[in-house]
Write a structure and sequence with these properties.
The protein is an alpha+beta fold. 26% of the residues lie in helices and 38% in strands. Strands 1, 2, 3, 4, 5, 6, 7, 8 and 9 form a nine-stranded antiparallel beta sheet that branches. β8 and β9 form a beta hairpin. Pfam families: PNPOx_N.
Length: 163
């Protein structure tokens, strides 16, 4: 599985679309997980980039994090507000990896406070999930055609053009 940095090097167009859409929506994405009964769950969340990783962190004791603890597979989709996808959108597929490093957690909390004013400094994080990416895709309009960029770990990024 690829860290964010590995993924961004292997799939720069998809990574660029993800970052652009992530930023444009105030970091809002939709997280797909699997509920205990096997049905999918979609939850809004604000993943964050920090120290060359993409972090799936948020309010503790939520059902989405219970889902990830039970089954680490996820899909992360940039929030789409334009049905014509004129600015594109992107999806990441992967597994979360818990990183129980209190020093990292505090650096993250310091950075979060410095950039947003949201104060989690000094708090303990029960789960701190890094996103390991196994595949991704993005769509965007290009000269009147729909370009679909696809990446799978171990393969180069490729484009499929729909006319």
């Amino acid at each position: 599985m690829a860290t964010w940095n590995d993924f961004a090097q292997g799939a720069p167009r998809i990574a660029d679309t993800f970052v652009r859409r992530h930023t444009a929506t105030g970091n809002l994405c939709m997280l797909g997980t699997l509920r205990s009964d096997g049905f999918p769950r979609i939850s809004p969340m604000e993943p964050r980039f920090f120290e060359n990783e993409l972090w799936i962190v948020g309010m503790p004791n939520t059902t989405k994090f219970a889902d990830l603890e039970r089954d680490p597979r996820f899909c992360l989709h940039t929030a789409t507000v334009d049905t014509g996808v004129s600015d594109g959108d992107a999806k990441l597929f992967g597994r979360v990896r818990d990183v129980p490093d209190p020093q990292l957690h505090q650096r993250f909390a310091e950075d979060l406070f410095a950039t947003t004013g949201f104060d989690l400094r000094g708090r303990r994080f029960d789960r701190f999930y890094a996103a390991d990416i196994v595949s991704a895709s993005s769509v965007g309009m290009n000269e009147g055609h729909l370009d679909i960029h696809v990446w799978k770990e171990g393969q180069p990024e490729r484009v499929v053009r729909k006319h």
